[in-house]
Amino acid sequence: MRFAPNNLYIEEYIKCANCGVLIYEKRGAKDPDKNPETITKAGKIYCSKWCLDWEEARTAKEANKASTVVS
Ligand SMILES: [Zn+2]
Hints:
By secondary structure, the protein is of the alpha+beta class.
């Protein structure tokens, strides 16, 4: 029996840059309930808009904190 090698494994596992959930398809998921939207930004992939917003908020907070350090 022969199998096409490409059908036997997932080439790469993609994780959400924020929460680390596995994303099986980058975009255009076949199952909208399972994977409603994935967002790619600055080379990072997020499982949802929520995660993108969360990380951006955290980054903004850290940047703000760093710039307002009082010595
Ligand atoms: Zn996520």
